[in-house]
């Protein structure tokens, strides 16, 4: 019997990051997290937010007078900068620490105090955290989730930081860091692509070739089935992994813009375009591992590793489950083309990074730190410790990348559009309370696409109306 | 209503002397102060920490609020949340059913099993100490841990059952199966709890009445049914209340197993999913919480009415 069971957290040695899902790793990690109660001023979901802080729109307090001439990165920062981090696993924790130490070495007058909170806890308490006494800077995600807090006036405008670091980032990254009002609120550190993973040795042995189109994919899957493999690995016990499959089929069929509009509630889920996505997905389900709803992504990765399944659509963190020769053998390709109009021009490659509080205690220091974090040097430092991701900064040193990282960087570079993943691109209440159960019921019963989309749309209407 | 001039009835032999009515005694000022503090402080705390939030939840359930900004940002929508829950929220009805299954299984299977084990252990069998510990262990474990243990047993590809028996049952992923699989785990924990309660009760039953009934020719079963079980009445009430509470607040085990989705929906999980975390549908979640409160109150009120009625009778 294998030793690696379902919901154990991956060993700290291998995990670079935890995918930002509150549903993830409920197991031991969750239990352990309860012991590690964060010492945050603003924790405790029970305190009613109404009394804790004045609405942020009250015209600038004393803190907001630091002016615009922010520190240009080197040698100007002073005082203590507090940094709320969700990097609670050993690897990201060490990586953030390394970045903070490097910053301190350059700014003798500054000190960075990192408050690390368990990943899921951090996410679940973000609302009360930001309304209470947030740290000067904090970890968060690009996309809708960032824009949401910017629009709610809970995040600090760091456009002037971007004037210093902007040249080092591609437009896609700048776009992903920009709020609805056209100002920047976010400094990207790294991202990681979603793709189709496979073992090179399995492909060699079976004489398989990487499929370029939907039909080739189906032909390959049929062949694999004949060879006794489960063609497509699949796991959705935690509810979020299936979002990756939906996203990529949606972008292949309807393109990036439709994905964005659908997530923003501007398109109807009853649209024929959405039904088309589900019918493609239903075809894929015939080749997918059965019993997905009782399987965690770690177990599905284990099946790929043990050569029980042939391919697996997941983020590059799937590599956490592979070591040594198995890791050497792991490879991936972009999800094949479905609609020639869109080719393979979009992928999900969620970006993690930092944001600044609305009224940081030490605004100048915070901006100096963010400027540093956006530099190639800082991202190199981060990725030296955490080697599962790809640096966001164009100038970052890629010579230290392993083969998978190099390929991931190429894939991201070759993609015209980068989506953030379903639950980062839409309202969190919609993603968690509507999409998860709906996709799970689709997996159980792929035949009733009309009923399903009708159901999603009626719930979407009531949620997006509020 | 104290009659100041009480005519003490002549005590008849055998009949108990009438108890003096409570409250007819005069308390000194200091007594009143002490009593007032002893009753008042807990009452204030209880109201402030239990009933006030409960009432506020009821109020909140008529609004829409994401918890950001002051109270002024709450949008009042009347009973719309309730309407949405009943008509436009697929997980709701399954959750109600699952809570009822939970109650049914614990009441009809878990509790009798616990009683059965308690009777066996009461017989002072060989090694009963060992059995007692073994059965009680799950109660001591946190439910989160219990959830984890059963994950290892039920896991589809790597779990104990499927590997040991070569079966291919998707214990946790198949929504028709998983609720029962989880109920086995919940029962496993519940049985130990009930067993300990009954064991304590059985130990306190006077052996002489058992002997008396067996001398009168009652069989073992009859003795239990007509003599011992009625003597356990106070324990039965406790067990009933504990079982109802346990099944209404069931949460952690399903939350660990799959986040309480896909056939493991429970009201408590739906509340958590909507209120905690980023979803922040405070009004909507409160409405579900109010529904759960109403269900709980039905049981509680029934129980209280019964108890008071019985007290009045005796």
Automatic annotation (TrEMBL), chain A:
- Give the Gene3D superfamilies listed for this entry: Periplasmic binding protein-like II (3.40.190.10)
* This protein's record includes keyword Transcription regulation: no
- rRNA processing among keywords: no
Name the domain of life: Bacteria
Family to which the UniProt record says this protein belongs: Belongs to the bacterial solute-binding protein 1 family.
PANTHER family in alphabetical order: ARABINOSE-BINDING PROTEIN-RELATED, OSMOPROTECTIVE COMPOUNDS-BINDING PROTEIN GGTB
Show the ranges annotated as biased composition (Low complexity).
45-68
InterPro entries xrefs: Bact_solute-bd_prot1, SBP, TAT_signal
Which intervals of the chain are annotated as region Disordered?
45-69
Q: Which UniProt keywords apply?
A: Sugar transport, Transport
Q: Which SUPFAM superfamilies match?
A: Periplasmic binding protein-like II
Name the chain's protein. Answer: Multiple sugar transport system substrate-binding protein
Q: Pfam families in the record, alphabetically?
A: SBP_bac_1
Per the UniProt record, the source organism is Motilibacter peucedani
Renumbered to this chain, the signal peptide range is: none
UniProtKB/TrEMBL annotation, chain B:
User: Localized where?
Assistant: Cell membrane
Signal peptide limits: none
Q: Which UniProt keywords apply?
A: Cell membrane, Membrane, Sugar transport, Transmembrane, Transmembrane helix, Transport
Which residue ranges have biased composition labelled Low complexity?
A: 1-17
Q: Which residues cross the membrane?
A: 33-56, 100-121, 133-153, 179-200, 282-305
- InterPro entries of this UniProt entry? ABC_transporter_permease, MetI-like, MetI-like_sf
Protein's membrane topology: Multi-pass membrane protein
Does the keyword Cell membrane feature in the UniProt annotation?
yes
What's this protein's family per the entry? Belongs to the binding-protein-dependent transport system permease family.
What is the name of the protein in this document? Multiple sugar transport system permease protein
> Which organism is this entry from?
Motilibacter peucedani
Taxonomic classification, please? Bacteria, Bacillati, Actinomycetota, Actinomycetes, Motilibacterales
